[in-house]
Amino acid sequence: MFQIIKNEWRFLVRSRIFLGISIAFIAILLLSVFLGNYQTQKQEQTHQNATDHVRQQWVSIDEMNPHSAAHYGTFIFKPSNLLSSLDEGVNSVTGNVLRVEGHVQNEITHSEASQMQAVSRFGKLKPALLLQYIVPLLLVFLAFNSVSNEKQSGRLKLLVLQGAKPLQIILAKTFSVWLYGVLLLIFILIVYGILNSQSLTADILARTGLFFLSYGLYYFIISGLTVFFSARWQNATLALTSMLGIWIIWTIFLPNILMSSVEKWHELPSRNEFQTAMKEDRSKGLDGHNPSDKRSLALKEKVLKKYGVDSLSQLPINFDGMRMQADEDYGNSVWDKHFGNNRSVLQKQKQSFQLGGIVNPFISLQNTSMGFMASDNLHHQEFLLQVENYRRDFIKMLNDKQTFGGSKTGDWSWKEDNAFFKSIPDFDYKPTQISAVLSNYILDVALMILWTILVLTMIVFGTKKIKMV
Amino acid sequence: MRNLTIFLYEWKHFVGSPFKIVAVLLFIIASIYGLQNGADLYEKQNSEIERINKEAEIQKATTLSYFENNQKGPENRPWIDVTSPFWALWHTPTYHFKKPSPALVYNIGQTEQYGFYKAIRTSSSPYDADMTNEISNPERIQSGTLDFSFVILFLLPLLLLVLLYNIKGQEAEHGFLPLVFVQTGSKNWWLLSRTAFYTVLLLLVLFGVMLYGATLTNVFNSENIFGNIFLWVTLYLFFWVIIYFLILKYGKNTVSNTLQMIGVWLLFAFIIPATVQQWITIEKPTNLMVDLIDVSRDTKSEINVQSIDKIDEQLFQLYPNLKDTKVAQENITVSRLRRLSTSALINVEMKKATKSIEEENKSKNKLISKTYWFNPISYFQNKLNQLSNTHYNDYETYRNNIQESVDKRNELKVFEIWNDIKVDKEKYLEYNATLSNSN
């Protein structure tokens, strides 16, 4: 079999068209890696400048009442991810700026897509675009006449007479085409690795390895299926058009239809509905800015009792800060409920979409590609969750300072100095480790493995019925 | 006559090819699905607008009940006094909508990148958090909804490819191409007639599905939407017909023709737009709105702590007629007058910041437009977006209208406060009428 693969490659390398297409394609791939990397670096620079600017504003606060500082708040900018230079995933459609402040959990805003007119329906020129859409087509073009040509020229019969088994021939042809895709993939990853050698971590390497695995599996499915059709159909054109049909249905048609459908099966609320429901639940809790609110009064009684005093002025603490924090705590539970619901709907949508991999391995590839490159919705949600956790700590620090910092209830003119504001840590984004989210992609990988087994089975059983001429 | 015979004979070819028939049927199914998606979004946006309007009516009725019952506001919020212009305007629910065009059925465009309703307050800005898109799955937004324009822009060239790929190549492979040329006289007319057959077939299919779409959102009620969109769809079809015709004319065999056709499609649908988008984001990285952030925090604080004289000076410069108001003329004291008026000054600064953002976005759009001559799919996409009012420019207009509404609200508030107006039920209704004009 190894000899057949060697011969196949010898033929391929001799073909000028093949070499021409390969060189042109490698040039585009290189361009995509360089541009992807350069864009990520440039975006990182913009992100760093904005983060530094906002932090500088925060640490420059001379003196301010802690609760006023909670309203002043801060801003968090979604960091660009080194891996997103390979697959950008959802990054261009999600927002980039999130305001962190007291009482309110804001939504992330200002997406890249909203800042210009429409350009590309399939995203930027990132390696993933070429690896997902173009490389499989190249593999189809390489494989569609690999067996039918041999049949027409009579070489297939000759090979069998020389002792090669049809199964060996078909598998060897499949592997030689697959190898072409894998070599392109390795080439991309090596260039990417060289360009980012300074920043490579174990997590990035593990993610890249899994990225390689999922593309390797998909390329095998495409190569095997095309060679199988080439062997089964009497003419090459039929094999080519069948595979083109499958490619169109798998990559253009089904993912779009399925994604649109899952959003209808598991519907998210409209923003207005969502906000109205949040507002209603919030109104059932304590109002931090309203001392005459019933729940505020109940809390006041509880605190007075705890400290064994009769009035707020006798308290050694500032009750306003405590009331604000109680308001926050209630607001947090409302957020957990409503955003939790949204997250669970999004999870259901994702799971339904993943099941689409049963009929379309391209869906599994898209999921794993984005997921392993940390640019899918799951990673976006993880980022939002980290910001919300930071917001809670940030506001609690300010409210605690208001409560226990030495001021008295009602003294809104009391201010904290610059040292306090400097002591509040900035948001430190911790990239999600692949080990923490790997379980979410097992279904996708398993479905691609099943597809690989299916294609192998088709080749093994299908080759028995192949006509030699 | 001979050409007509070739044309009609192609029908026999077509019905004898199950592969082509299945492709056309799949295309029709995708079109209907896309039209349905567009119509669903149209319905969804309209019903959401209706729901918000109803909510606003309830809010209005609640505030009216305060006037009717001689109340100043809700019992649990004693600081509210709806007889003051500030609180009366605060309780005047004003929404600005971007009402969906019936043409949404044909093209969703950039609709899902933006919000379509906005609650207007004196401190509102067209770049507020509620101006972002509806809550949705970003993975779906990223892959895009399968709407009719997607079917046209990406699937139509592929369908045309499936219908045309073996013309001439098949005859050449079977060795009877010279015979065909002898029988038909002109090989160009033979090729043209066969290509024309599929072009007419597709035009009929497109007309049919577009007609079906028109019944979903009352397209015919609006000014020639159907005609304009059909015209551009036809032009787009001709664009691909010409490219494929030239490939067939100069091509040698079916396989090479197919590869060339798919190659051109990949170039126009994937490689060029993706490269342009990559280039634009390198040239002009995503704006993180730092200028806007600065105004919303630092400039706002600076304005609020200014001296009364300075605030008065700026307000008089902004509204020269303010000098004629009761407060300015009689020098009477209105509680927190300046503090309640500074939102108008902050609004001016916000407008300056948003203007620079819009300018930057415009320069990005200019760069994109410059690529149209070699980036036809983006050109046709944006053309369809313009026709269905879902282009970036339509949302810019929507933002401008919001800004005008905010300006109007601020001006009304400042003048009412400076005239020391006591609000009653009639006045409150007048506020609602004045501000709702901008809806």
From TrEMBL, chain A:
It comes from the Bacteria. Keywords: Membrane, Transmembrane, Transmembrane helix. The keyword Transmembrane helix applies. The keyword Phosphoprotein does not apply. The chain crosses the membrane at residues 17-38, 128-147, 167-192, 204-230, 236-258, 441-461. It holds the Pfam family DUF3526. This is DUF3526 domain-containing protein.
Automatic annotation (TrEMBL), chain B:
The chain crosses the membrane at residues 21-39, 148-167, 195-213, 225-247, 259-280. Signal peptide: none annotated. Keywords: Coiled coil, Membrane, Transmembrane, Transmembrane helix. It comes from the Bacteria. Residues 35-62 form a coiled coil. This is DUF3526 domain-containing protein. It comes from Winogradskyella marina.
